Amino acid sequence: MRTLTVPSTTPATTAPVSPGRQALDTALFQLDQAADRLDLDDSLRAMLATPRRSLTVSVPVRREDGRMDVVQGFRVQHNITRGPAKGGIRFHPRTDVHEVTALAMGMTWKCALAGIPYGGAQGGVSVDPASLSTLELERVTRRYVNEVLPIVGPERDVPAPEVGADRRTMAWIVDTYSVNAGYPVPGVMTGGSTSGGAPERAEATARGVRFATLRAICGSPEGRTVAIQGFGKVGAPAARHLADAGALVVAVSDSTGAVVNRSGLDVDRLRAWSKETGGVRGYREADPLSHDDLLELDVDVLVPAALEGAITEQNAPRIRAGLIVEGASCPTTPGADRVLADAGITVVPDILANAGGVIVSYLEWLQEAQARSWSAREVDARLRGLVENAFDTVAAVSAECGITLRQAAHVIGVGRVAEAHRSRGL
Ligand code: NAD
Which of 29, 75, 91, 265 is at a distance of 20 to 30 A from 135, taking alpha carbons? Predict the structure, then answer.
């Protein structure tokens, strides 16, 4: 197997590998495997392994006490051969250019797999939003947008809120972009009603997780037990939608802690508690649990919906769920994948399971382009159709080639992008 690397501007160092670098190594490994199966030549491999554009910016932040800090921001467009770039914006202290590149690459394959005409991008700011006042966060967000402005825009690269971003950050992004443009540009961002987009977009990723889970279960979800790591924009609505489908959500975690109730959690009450207290920790109608124990619970379905690298070669042997549905991006390392495959645990990969958000962004765009409006029910039916179709295609390739769902998903996604490169003569 040939090994893919991306040129690095970082000097050689003996420092431990950052989580971002690990995520990028994982992304390159997955690309490498798919490229081998597709028998791609070296030049095409190199093109697919390298982001088309990668912008690193310095974001000065004037703190309320008058101090000035400088944080780094990034916007990476991995590939725009199949359409304009699309991808999240994240605010997290460990965000670096490697992590952003890995997520942008995953987005490219995700859009290709879903059959929607977008390329892959990702942005981020290496800051902990909880460490900033609202005013400071607004300053960071607006300054970041001003810095990446030359490469984003409705026809070029459309961000959506991701880890650490919310409706407020979205509103600041739309406003800053619009002020610069000189007219309102609600379409510069997708991700919920604040941007002028469809209200159903806010929960679309979680809806996609639900459809992918039900397809993978191949039967009634009634009474199946579910544990969810991460209770944010993906995890919390996914808990609600899986409970609505009849599953029993027994455990949930977020950065404050984890809770378990074997009889099933009341998801709405837990959401209200989390909103009121800032996290799930201390929820009275459940027992406390450690973060690690949540991943290792004896449940039917485990949904990692937090950050990269949650399931590793170390904890994978202790995972007892029969099915893992990746709400998060890159939550499973390649070493863990091998352990899970050997144990017969099915993993519905991120680029399939969490595609609901970008699919509904595409459906929003279709409605605008056709000057028509679909009901929430119609949007949901189309989302379901696209997720189920992608799932069935992946499952068929997996069965035919004797490979995992993740490998099959990458063969399809990478293959479609490679084909687009060939047909455009790049
Ligand atoms: P978010 O910031 O809204 O939520 C993240 C959640 O994870 C929070 O509840 C946080 O407390 C929790 N968390 C962080 N560290 C944790 C830990 N060690 N253990 C348990 N919980 C922990 O972010 P989000 O938008 O929900 O994104 C979550 C994941 O889903 C990311 O990997 C993201 O790339 C992926 N994703 C999100 C979307 C979307 O539409 N938001 C779309 C596709 C993929």
Answer: 75
pLDDT-derived band at 21, boundaries 50, 70, 90: very high
Percent of the chain, pLDDT > 90? 87
pLDDT tens by residue, 112-142? 999 999 999 999 999 999 999 999 999 999 9
Q: Report residue 292's pLDDT band, with 50, 70 and 90 as the boundaries.
A: very high
Backbone φ, ψ for residue 301 (5° rounding): -130, 135
Q: How far apart are the C-alpha atoms of 316 and 227, rounded to whole Å?
A: 15
Q: Tell me the Cα Rg of the chain.
A: 20
CB of residue 192 inside a 6 A radius of ligand 1: no
SS3 63: coil
pLDDT band, very low/low/confident/very high, at 200 (cuts 50, 70, 90): low
| Residue-by-residue DSSP string for 240-309 | HHHHHTT-EEEEEEETTEEEE-TT---HHHHHHHHHHHSSSTT-TTSEEE-HHHHHT---SEEEE-S-TT
Give the CA dihedral 210, 214, 217, 218, nearest 10 degrees.
-170
Q: Tell me if 23 CB under 6 Å of ligand 1.
A: no
Q: b vs e for 222-242, b when ≥16 Cβ sit within 10 Å of the residue's Cβ?
A: eebbbbbbbbbbbbbbbbbbb
Q: CB of 238 closer than 6 A to ligand 1? A: no
Chain-wide mean pLDDT for the chain?
A: 93
pTM across the whole model? 0.94
Cα of 233 to ligand 1 centre, how many Å?
Answer: 7
- Ligand 1: centre distance to CA 42 (Å): 35
pLDDT of residue 349: 98
Whose Cα sits closest to atom 23 in ligand 1? 163
